[in-house]
């Protein structure tokens, strides 16, 4: 009876399942094939706008019908809808990593608790976790930041709606106020965003992301679903359909074009995208328009109803699958299809056997149901197996939360130790390289002459060359090479031997460095007089990048310098192919760009690398340093 009274004038808008489908497809493909759908992360603002609209619409209806909002009842309904699947995902994921990937158990109690309390996004901010550093061992919980923002919204919004209705009364005033608050949130995102830095703080923050939910909430006050009439004029229908189709087309276009590293995203782009979504949602909600029909079909309905589970399970499945498959980069689409199938199967099982049943389950009968499973004989054998399996999984997860590993995998420790050692030795070698380079200006210019003369000199026979050490003749040529190297952890891993082979090379290598923040670092090196005429670049390991970001790096280096860019060997990541293809294509644009094909040279030699199959181990570093030194000598 309560449900009928509370939802007396409500209608189920089937097209919203289609909108959710659009959102979840964007998010999934962004994670699986980022080079093909670089703006798919904007599926999350779509979820936010829809959620803000629907929740506020229902709260408004409740106020109109009952002259009050049952806040406690609202909380109970949200918990019953969202907690079972979230809790199941957390427990099963923790159980899995307890058994198979113990290195992911670090901070697991805090991760578990912060997700249940819906504050995980702030945990990520405080721990400086990057959403955009895709390399290393990704957390299977990274994506849950958005659920925390929604959870915080659910906690306060019913109370805020009641206060707004009581004190402002007029819906237009309420709309104006909420829209202003949304705009302030977007301004805060723009203010806190720093060009060339990791944007994770503004990406995760409730304060900087709330505008999407607020826009949906504002819409519900001037566009309540229960007040929209099916009978409208032809002109009105045409206007709504035109707005709906054009906003949908714009949303899809942005999915394909707006990179998560573009400054435009954080300086108004995401806000205006959310406004587009608000317009689109308004047209889908209106029964007199045709957009609801357009977004309603069996496939969209099936996916839309399971979109919560799909979103929940996508990241754990991707992380676990990709940790076992070493050829992700070689077959990105094949692996993507396998992962999509796994996500759909798991989310369907969650929807059928967890989300729907537990939404109606009387939790007061929990112990009675468990007892019945063990005392009902053969007829309850399936329930008994289910209960036992659940208890075992819970037990494993509980054990994992208590027994936290003292250290990460051995290979990871060895790599970190090697990078730390190299960083210390690089300081001394860099000082020597700078001293040699600055001893005379003529020496600096003479270096390019000597290096370029290498082509004219007779080459050392291939059979006398060692793949792990330069010959005496090559070492002599290498001693005349003056260069600056800038790169990420792969370069940092090979710095020591590389500087042994090229003693006049200054190296600036940082773990986690991305192409999008390299331009500022290069400009700083130039201002300090550390950027020489030959520049070696080792970037692209951590994520794909746009041509605009590549252009920024090349512009920072300048057209008068020769650039030697080492392409990437990242078979465990799907951007390996797109990054290397993009680097090759840029040679046509930049005459001073030379690609060092480390990928082709190393791809069939897994024994050269640590367990991650990306960073060369001590033996592999010999091949890395020798090959790069040889390529520099050959091309200068």
Automatic annotation (TrEMBL):
The answer to whether UniProt assigns keyword Transmembrane helix to this entry is yes
Q: Gene3D superfamilies per the record?
A: SGNH hydrolase
Q: Which InterPro entries match?
A: Acyl_transf_3_dom, Acyltransferase_3, SGNH_hydro_sf
This entry's Gene Ontology molecular function terms read: acyltransferase activity, transferring groups other than amino-acyl groups
> Would you say which domain of life the source belongs to?
Bacteria
Which Gene Ontology terms describe the biological processes this protein takes part in? lipopolysaccharide biosynthetic process
Q: Where do the Acyltransferase domain residues begin and end?
A: 14-350
Region listing for Disordered, in residue ranges? 428-471
Name the predominant localization: membrane
Q: Where in the cell is it found?
A: Cell membrane
- What Pfam families does the annotation carry? Acyl_transf_3
Keyword line: Acyltransferase, Cell membrane, Membrane, Transferase, Transmembrane, Transmembrane helix
Biased composition, class Basic and acidic residues, residue ranges: 441-462
Where does the sequence pass through the membrane? 12-33, 39-60, 81-99, 151-168, 175-193, 208-226, 238-258, 264-287, 385-404
Q: Where is composition skewed (Low complexity) in this entry? A: 431-440
Which GO terms of the cellular component aspect does the record hold?
A: plasma membrane
What is this protein's name? Answer: Acyltransferase
Look up and give the organism this protein is from.
Dellaglioa algida
């Amino acid at each position: 009876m309560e449900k009928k009274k509370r939802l007396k004038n409500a209608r189920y808008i089937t097209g919203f399942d289609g909108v959710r489908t659009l959102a979840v497809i964007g998010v999934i493909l962004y994670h699986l094939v980022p080079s093909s759908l670089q703006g798919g992360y904007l599926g999350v603002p779509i979820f936010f706008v829809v959620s803000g609209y629907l929740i506020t619409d229902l709260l408004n209806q409740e106020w109109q019908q009952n002259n009050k909002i049952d806040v406690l009842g609202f909380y109970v309904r949200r918990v019953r809808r969202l907690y079972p699947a979230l809790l199941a995902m957390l427990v099963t994921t923790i159980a899995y990593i307890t058994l198979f990937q113990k290195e992911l158990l670090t901070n697991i109690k805090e991760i578990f608790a912060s997700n249940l309390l819906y504050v995980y996004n702030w945990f990520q901010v405080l721990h400086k976790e990057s959403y955009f550093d895709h390399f290393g061992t990704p957390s299977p919980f990274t994506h849950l930041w958005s659920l925390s923002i929604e959870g915080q919204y659910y906690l306060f919004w019913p109370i805020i709606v009641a206060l707004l209705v009581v004190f402002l009364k007029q819906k237009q005033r309420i709309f104006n106020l909420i829209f202003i608050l949304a705009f302030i949130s977007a301004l805060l995102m723009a203010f806190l965003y720093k060009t060339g830095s990791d944007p994770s703080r503004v990406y995760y923050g409730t304060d900087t992301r709330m505008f999407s939910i607020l826009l949906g909430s504002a819409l519900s006050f001037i566009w309540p679903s229960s007040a929209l009439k099916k009978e409208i004029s032809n002109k009105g229908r045409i206007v709504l359909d035109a707005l709906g189709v054009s906003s949908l087309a714009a949303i899809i276009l942005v999915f394909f074009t707006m990179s998560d590293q573009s400054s435009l995203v954080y300086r108004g782009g995401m806000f205006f995208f959310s406004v587009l979504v608000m317009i689109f949602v308004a047209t889908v909600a209106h029964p007199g328009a045709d957009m609801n029909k357009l977004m309603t079909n069996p496939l969209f309905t099936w996916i839309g109803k399971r979109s919560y589970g799909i979103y929940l399970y996508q990241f754990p499945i991707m992380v676990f699958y990709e940790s076992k498959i070493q050829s992700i980069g070689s077959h990105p689409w094949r692996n993507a299809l396998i992962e999509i199938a796994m996500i759909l199967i798991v989310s369907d099982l969650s929807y059928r056997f967890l989300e729907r049943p537990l939404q109606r389950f009387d939790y007061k009968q929990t112990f009675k149901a468990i007892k019945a499973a063990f005392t009902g004989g053969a007829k309850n054998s399936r329930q008994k197996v289910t209960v036992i399996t659940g208890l075992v999984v819970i037990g494993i997860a509980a054990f994992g939360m208590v027994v936290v590993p003292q250290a990460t995998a051995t290979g990871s420790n060895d790599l970190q130790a090697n990078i730390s050692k190299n960083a210390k030795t690089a300081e001394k070698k860099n000082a020597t390289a700078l001293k040699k380079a600055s001893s005379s200006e003529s020496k600096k210019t003479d270096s390019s002459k000597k290096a370029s003369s290498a082509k004219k000199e007779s080459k050392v026979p291939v059979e006398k060359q060692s793949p792990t050490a330069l010959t005496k003749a090559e070492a002599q040529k290498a001693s005349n090479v003056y260069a600056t190297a800038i790169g990420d952890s792969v370069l940092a891993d090979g710095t020591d031997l590389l500087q042994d082979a090229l003693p006049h090379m200054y190296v600036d290598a940082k773990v986690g460095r991305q192409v999008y923040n390299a331009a500022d670092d290069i400009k700083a090196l130039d201002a300090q007089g550390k950027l020489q005429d030959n520049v070696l670049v080792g970037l692209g390991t951590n994520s794909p990048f746009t041509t605009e970001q590549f252009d920024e790096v090349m512009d920072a280096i300048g057209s008068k310098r020769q650039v030697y860019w080492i392409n990437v060997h990242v078979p465990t990541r799907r951007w390996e192919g797109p990054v290397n293809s993009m680097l090759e294509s840029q040679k046509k644009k930049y005459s001073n760009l030379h690609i060092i094909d480390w990928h082709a040279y190393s791809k069939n030699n897994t024994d050269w690398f640590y367990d991650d199959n990306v960073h060369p181990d001590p033996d592999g570093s010999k091949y890395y340093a020798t090959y790069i030194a040889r390529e520099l000598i050959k091309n200068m």
